[in-house]
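queue> pop job 88
queue> type: inverse folding (structure -> sequence)
queue> payload:
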């Protein structure tokens, strides 16, 4: 194990420890060697040599003349004055030994003084972070250390917290000073500061995670250690996001030392005095952090008093007095915003990846007066989020189990406050504090996305958690019912739990004293009764005389008033949507077994005039009812929706929309425009449309020969079809997303809407069966009689494919489509793959890919059929100047740069889609060939990519750096999936033109000329660091077998690499540049080492060549690529021999012959 630095050693150890914990590590011997090699690094954990006067004098001598050399660890370096000053600045910034600082400066890449200074600081922080996140954390989780271990490490970690916080404070103060003096950080300076903030945040998180691991393991953490942590928390006065890092350690330490399971009574009583009034009470700089420490401590400490007979020497009166004192202390902490702080922590740690207006409205309502996080706060690490949520699960469980009376007190006081507010005049009413609701939502965050632990609520009906669920569900005021619905949603994340929640909601009565009594708890019956009440109020208001606007709409304000009422309705609808989507039992019951007409009521609630979020929630429930749908339910929903839109009001409404004298009745298109007033409403409505056109599971596995809606939908009131809905989804909702930033709409909402619209486009294109049209055109088969639609022409005309393709050639839609694939690449890589921005970017590229593939079918077959129905067609929307999607790309070639950049994305799906699209663009004649003699159009695609190709290629190089760890499991890693896609794109591009530069040449490291390529002196190619060099090296060094089996995916990569190399070596365009490079790499000799006899690896994808199935499975691809690889090797060897003979380079000729 000869790694260059301790950082690389620890990173390798961390990688193998993670693989070992996930049962993926096949080479345990390597892990053992890495552990042995890292012993010294682990012993240096958090050790830092402080500033030293002797080292300082060696670095900067007190004499006026500085020596030319500097000796560090018995090695002399020739250094400049600027280097000495940079090293000195690093030492001062990090309070580090001056020679250690100089060593850091030497290790980073050379640059100017400022860059060297920032790189050295970042390198130091990265090194410490690697130690934090690596083997120490993994070994602490093992919980098998000696019983007296841990206290020394604990003290180091607590001291380390102070160091990190000091550095972070200094960094923040420096940035504030620069802002106050008008200085603006840009470029490398801004990047360095942001990197330092992120690394310091990760260090702080990791230190807290190690403390939690020590507390949860069998380590010697006792009273002194706990006092040290609490004292450290009490003195904290830094950024609120750093304060939130203390939460898991406070919860875990309370669980370890507060209850009677791990600690003696005297110890716990002594620690309790840190929190109650008295001489031993700590003074806290952060009142909210103090409040959190108190509630987490009391949740565990109160467990000692569960059994009133445990200590008979204590009198009943004294016991009751102590209990009241603890209760008062807890309530005071709650008033000091303990639950505010914990809920804000949950919201920050678990932000909604997908914009959820209902949940966002509830949480914002509960946090309306909470502290705001800094805008530049670094996002938390996923491991730290998991750690914190696990501890919060323990806190909520302990509080429910050990302090049940506190919830009764909270409930009683809140109900009294509400009654007082309702009985007071509006001028006297005060805002009450919904702290019980805050706790319920904190609990929902803790159990969110953890179905296994959430079963604790359902597995034992006598458990405290299930009892709390039943107690809190009864006689709920408006905001509390919303919080309770959120809790039910979070603990119903899988089908089993959702089915259990459905059964819970079916219960509307309970057995009390042998009689059935109504419980007045949250149930399906109550939810539907509330929804029906508000729907009925809408009906009564709509039937009353109303004034009508000039465009035919009913004037008036929102029909449902009050923030709390809206939150309650949204919560009911969100819970129903979630349960319906996840639970087949609930979905079947809603559709078939109950008398409540969900669809009709949802359309009544979604009438224009209601709040946008409630409309969105109604549409979401309708879409949820279509999960795993059947054709009959889908068609019924279409008819109900179309009747509602056509009537311009609630479904089932008897009264027609009033007419305006002198004006025509408002069209469906104008009525639909109102849904675009609020992004959340437009998003939910387009999502409903997307669900409606998605084939059912039975249809998806069939021939796709039916329309996704009733064939006569809309007739006779208008032309049959859903073009009006397509026009809204694309021509209104999607097209206007390009203007959202200008009008101040939140970017997250824009990304959600854009992604939803692109999903609609994607479904419209992928569910169209072009094979039916191709079959009818190429054969004499009567397709009309074989499909479910009345005729093939009707299928082509009515399917949303035709109208969607027409919109894709609309100039404004093209602008919005291109905007979806042009996000900031660095920001994109830092996001969760499920985030709206990543998903909209992915869907945007998929739509462009589909448009390139399907455009011939549209222009040659579908559009002529649609034009025959010109009398009944809606107005054309396409730009007549665009004859193909290639013209669309050619009109805005800048988008190709962004697509090329996405090929190097850390999100594999995004990268693969970008490479697939580049594959098509590079093969396009319109984009790659000159249109006429003397024209430069053929070079425009290459010119667009050329300026950024080196930066992009440097990321692609990483895909071809393969080591033992990547392939030892025998499963293809994502980096090699991406490598195969890169090779496919490069080979396709090279095949497209052998005499002119292509996109492939730019990415491989060549600089383009008019009709030639060259290598510039400052390029990656000139320094042997280009993508070409990485591919050539991979072709020689990549193994093709794991164990005794050749693997098709390894052979495919090897063959693809050799293909690229041979094509470049044989092409007259690049031969003179490539051949000397390959000769200097001794490629023939390197390749010859992998040309082993077939008998050495007798299996092909685990099948013997004599197996009858061998040529019918992927093993056939392995054999094909093996033979192709051999052929390419001998072709290149023959080329080198021929060139050596022609040039009379006998040494090369002799070397090649000896190799062969």
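queue> result:
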């Amino acid at each position: 194990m000869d790694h260059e630095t301790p950082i690389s050693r620890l990173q390798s150890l961390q990688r193998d420890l993670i693989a070992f914990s996930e049962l993926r590590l096949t080479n345990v011997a390597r892990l053992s060697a890495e552990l042995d090699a890292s012993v010294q690094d682990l012993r240096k954990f958090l050790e830092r040599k402080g500033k030293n006067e002797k080292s300082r004098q060696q670095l900067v001598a007190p004499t006026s003349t500085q020596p030319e050399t500097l000796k560090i660890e018995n090695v002399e370096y020739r250094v400049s004055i600027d280097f000495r000053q940079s090293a000195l600045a690093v030492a001062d910034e990090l309070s580090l030994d001056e020679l250690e600082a100089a060593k850091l400066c030497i290790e980073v890449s050379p640059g100017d003084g400022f860059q060297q200074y920032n790189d050295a600081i970042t390198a130091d922080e990265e090194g410490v972070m690697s130690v934090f996140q690596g083997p120490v954390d993994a070994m602490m989780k093992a919980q098998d250390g000696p019983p007296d271990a841990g206290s020394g490490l604990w003290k180091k970690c607590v001291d380390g917290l102070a160091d990190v916080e000091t550095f972070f404070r200094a960094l923040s103060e420096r940035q504030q000073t620069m802002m106050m003096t008008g200085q603006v950080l840009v470029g490398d300076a801004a990047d360095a500061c942001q990197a330092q903030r992120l690394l310091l945040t990760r260090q702080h998180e990791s230190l807290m995670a190690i403390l939690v691991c020590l507390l949860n393991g069998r380590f010697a953490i006792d009273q002194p250690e706990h006092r040290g942590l609490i004292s450290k928390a009490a003195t904290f006065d830094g950024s609120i996001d750093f304060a939130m890092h203390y939460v898991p350690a406070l919860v875990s330490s309370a669980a370890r030392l507060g209850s009677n399971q791990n600690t003696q009574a005297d110890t716990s009583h002594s620690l309790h005095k840190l929190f109650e009034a008295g001489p031993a009470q700590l003074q806290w700089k952060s009142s909210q952090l103090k409040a959190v420490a108190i509630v987490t401590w009391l949740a565990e400490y109160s467990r000692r008093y569960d059994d009133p007979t445990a200590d008979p020497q204590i009198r009943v009166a004294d016991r009751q007095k102590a209990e009241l004192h603890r209760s008062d202390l807890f309530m005071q902490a709650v008033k000091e915003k303990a639950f505010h702080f914990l809920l804000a922590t949950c919201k920050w740690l678990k932000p909604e990846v997908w914009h959820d207006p209902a949940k966002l409205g509830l949480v914002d309502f509960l946090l309306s007066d909470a502290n705001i996080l800094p805008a530049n706060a670094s996002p938390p690490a996923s491991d730290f989020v998991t750690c914190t949520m696990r501890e919060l699960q323990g806190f909520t469980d302990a509080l429910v189990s050990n302090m049940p009376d506190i919830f009764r007190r909270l409930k009683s006081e809140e109900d009294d406050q509400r009654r007082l507010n309702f009985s007071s005049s509006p001028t006297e009413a005060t805002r009450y504090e919904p702290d019980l609701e805050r706790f319920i939502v904190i609990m929902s965050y803790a159990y969110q996305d953890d179905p296994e632990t959430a079963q604790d609520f359902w597995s034992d009906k006598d458990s405290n958690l299930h009892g709390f669920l039943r107690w809190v569900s009864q006689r709920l005021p408006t905001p509390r019912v919303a919080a309770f619905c959120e809790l039910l949603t979070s603990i119903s994340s899988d089908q089993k739990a959702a089915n259990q929640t459905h059964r819970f909601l079916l219960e509307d009565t309970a057995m009390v004293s042998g009689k059935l009594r109504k419980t007045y708890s949250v149930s399906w019956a109550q939810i539907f009764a509330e929804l029906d009440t508000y729907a009925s109020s809408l009906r009564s208001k709509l039937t009353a005389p109303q004034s009508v606007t000039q465009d035919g709409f009913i004037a008036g304000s929102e029909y449902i008033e009050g923030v709390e009422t809206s939150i309650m309705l949204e919560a009911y609808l969100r819970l129903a949507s979630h349960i319906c989507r996840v639970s087949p039992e609930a979905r079947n019951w809603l559709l078939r077994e109950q008398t409540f007409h969900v669809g009709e009521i949802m359309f009544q609630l979604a009438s224009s005039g209601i709040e946008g979020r409630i409309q969105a929630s109604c549409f979401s429930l309708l879409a949820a009812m279509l999960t795993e749908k059947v054709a009959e339910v889908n068609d019924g929903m279409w008819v109900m929706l179309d009747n509602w839109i056509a009537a311009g009001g609630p479904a089932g409404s008897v009264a027609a929309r009033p007419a305006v004298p002198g004006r025509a009745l408002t069209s469906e298109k104008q009525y639909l425009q109102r849904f675009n007033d609020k992004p959340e409403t437009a998003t939910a409505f387009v999502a409903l449309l997307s669900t409606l056109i998605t084939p059912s599971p039975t249809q998806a596995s069939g021939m796709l020969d039916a329309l996704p809606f009733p064939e006569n939908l809309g007739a006779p009131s208008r032309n049959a079809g859903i073009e009006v809905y397509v026009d809204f989804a694309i021509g209104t909702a999607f097209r206007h997303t390009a203007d959202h930033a200008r009008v101040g709409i939140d970017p997250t909402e824009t990304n959600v809407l854009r992604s939803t619209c692109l999903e609609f486009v994607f479904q419209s294109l992928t569910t169209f069966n072009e094979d039916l049209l191709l079959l009818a055109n190429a054969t004499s088969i009567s397709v009309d009689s074989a499909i479910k639609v009345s005729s093939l022409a009707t299928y082509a005309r009515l399917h949303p494919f035709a109208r969607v393709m027409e919109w894709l050639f609309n100039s404004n839609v093209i602008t919005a489509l291109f905007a979806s694939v042009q996000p900031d690449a660095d920001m994109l890589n830092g996001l969760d793959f499920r985030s709206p921005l990543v998903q909209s970017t992915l869907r945007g590229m998929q739509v462009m890919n589909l448009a390139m593939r399907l455009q011939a079918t549209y222009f040659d077959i579908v559009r002529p059929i649609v034009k025959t129905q010109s009398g009944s067609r809606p107005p054309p929307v396409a730009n007549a100047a665009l004859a193909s999607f290639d013209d669309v790309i050619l009109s805005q070639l800048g988008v190709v740069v962004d697509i090329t950049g996405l090929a190097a994305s850390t999100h594999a799906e995004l990268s693969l889609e970008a490479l697939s699209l580049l594959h098509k663009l590079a093969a396009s004649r319109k984009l790659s060939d000159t249109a006429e003699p003397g024209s430069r159009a053929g070079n425009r695609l290459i010119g667009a990519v050329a300026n950024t190709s080196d930066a992009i290629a440097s990321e692609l190089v990483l895909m071809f750096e393969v080591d033992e760890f990547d392939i030892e499991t025998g499963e293809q890693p994502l980096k090699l999936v991406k490598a195969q896609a890169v090779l496919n794109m490069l080979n396709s591009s090279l095949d497209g033109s052998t005499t002119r530069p292509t996109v492939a040449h730019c990415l491989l490291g060549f600089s383009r000329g008019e009709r030639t390529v060259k290598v510039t002196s400052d390029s990656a190619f000139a320094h042997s660091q280009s993508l070409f060099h990485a591919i050539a090296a991979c072709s020689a060094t990549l193994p093709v077998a794991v164990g005794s089996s050749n693997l098709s995916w390894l052979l495919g990569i090897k063959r693809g690499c050799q293909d690229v190399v041979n094509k470049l070596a044989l092409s007259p365009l690049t031969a003179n540049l490539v051949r000397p490079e390959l000769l200097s790499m001794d490629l023939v000799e390197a390749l010859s080492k992998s040309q082993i006899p077939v008998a050495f690896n007798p299996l092909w994808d685990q099948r013997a060549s004599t197996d009858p199935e061998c040529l019918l499975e992927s093993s056939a691809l392995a054999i094909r690529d093996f033979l192709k690889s051999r052929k390419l090797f001998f072709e290149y060897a023959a080329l080198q021999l021929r060139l050596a003979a022609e040039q009379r380079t006998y040494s090369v000729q002799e070397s090649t012959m000896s190799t062969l």
